[in-house]
Structure formats: C-alpha cells, structure tokens
Amino acid sequence: MTKSGLISSLRYIFPALMLMLMPMAATAQTEAPADSDSVAAPNVIQRIIDSSDGNVEILIDDDLMEKILTPPTSHKKASTGSRNTMKPGINKVSGYRIQVFSDGRNQHSLESRARARGNAITARFPKYRGQVYTFSSAPNWYTRVGNFQTASEASEALVELRRSFPSFADEMRVVKCQIIVVK
User: Fold this and answer.
1) Which of 5, 26, 79, 128 has a CA-to-CA distance to 134 between 20 and 30 Å?
2) CA distance 117 to 9
3) What's the rounded Cα separation, in Å, for the pair 16 and 48?
4) pLDDT of residue 44
5) Distance from the first to the final alpha carbon of the chain
6) Which residues does 78 contact at the CB level (< 8 Å), separation at least 6?
7) What mean pLDDT do residues 12-37 have?
8) What is the pLDDT of residues 157-167, one digit of tens each?
C-alpha cells in the first residue's frame, strides 16, 4: 500500500482517537487548581503536542495493521472465453433470457397478464418450469423465460417460442441480464 493509501486508511482512526481524548481534555480543563496562585494544568492535547513535538506515535496490533494494509479482494468472477467460472451450487452470472411480456398500459390487469403469459409457456414447454420470471419495474410488468449462458442458446429458444406462440411473437426478444445457473 502506498503512503497516501495508508494515510487515507488512517484518517478514520484519528477522529476516533480524538473523541477518546476529548473527555480527558475536558476533565483536565475543568479541574480546579490546588491554590489560586498556580497555573491550571494544560489540557491533554496540549500536553501531547508539547511532549511529542507535534509527532504522535500510534501503536496498532499486527493483525489490525495487516487488515489495514491488505488491499481488498475483488469479488468479480474471472471469465474464460464466453463462459463464466462457477462454483458448485447456485451461481448468478451474466447471461440471457427471453422477454415474452412487457407492458405498462392497463395497470389493473398487468400482473395477471404477465403471469398468464408465463403459465402458457410452461404449459407448452415444461423444460422452462422454474425458469419463468415475472416482475414489476413501475409502471411496467415483465415476464422473462430461461437461463441461457450464451446468446446463441437464447436465440435458438427464441425461434422455438416464436413458432409456438405466433400471437405474441413480435413482442418476444432476447435480453441480457443476470441469470441463475446451478452447477
């Protein structure tokens, strides 16, 4: 880590240190002198400045210092080619879905129409059961189908769906979004 990075990291420690020292400074300032002729004791901050010539040494535990100096790890997943690397289990990766419904008119019936479109697709194509996503992003409702890792897989499925549902084939399109892949 660079010197400026260390200084940037430590900028959060100094205000906390100052807050801890302030009650001591206030106490030191409010103490009454033993006799009226003596000068009041200087406050804690002034004593630190005087005794250290303006330099303050902060002792930090080695474990904490390692955490401060270690750069944060990236949470981005590395990709190999067009496929994302995946861990065993459920993975959210960049991929494609087929949007089969998108509408913002007739607000009172949007949700039911969006869900009906998804139900019609799963009735004819059971392989999409569990892969129909109906959601709202005000004022529109959307229904998207599938979890395709490549655009070519999504395009092949789009052709199949358009052929099976000609009444709303013009509304269907491939969209890039986060998909769920179980490995």
Assistant:
1) 79
2) 53
3) 16
4) 75
5) 37
6) 85
7) 52
8) 999 999 999 99
> Cβ neighbours of residue 116 under 8 Å, at least 6 residues apart?
none
Domains of the chain as residue ranges with CATH: 3-69 (no CATH), 86-182 (3.30.70)
Q: Across-strand partners of 167?
A: none
For residue 98, which of 47, 19, 5, 160 has the smallest C-alpha distance? 160
User: If phi over 0 gives left and psi between -120 and 50 gives alpha, with beta otherwise, what is residue 164?
Assistant: alpha
Tens digits of per-residue pLDDT, 71-116?
Answer: 776 555 444 444 557 778 888 999 999 999 998 887 778 889 999 9
**What's the rounded Cα separation, in Å, for the pair 134 and 120?**
13
- Secondary structure string (H, E, C) spanning the chain: CCHHHHHHHHCCHHHHHHHHHHHHHHHHHHCCCCCCCCCCCCCHHHHHHHHHCCCCCCCCCHHHHHHHHCCCCCCCCCEECCEECCCCCEEEEEEEEEEEEEECCCHHHHHHHHHHHHHHHHHHCHHHCCCEEEEEECCEEEEEEEEECCHHHHHHHHHHHHHHCHHHHHHCEEEEEEEEEEC
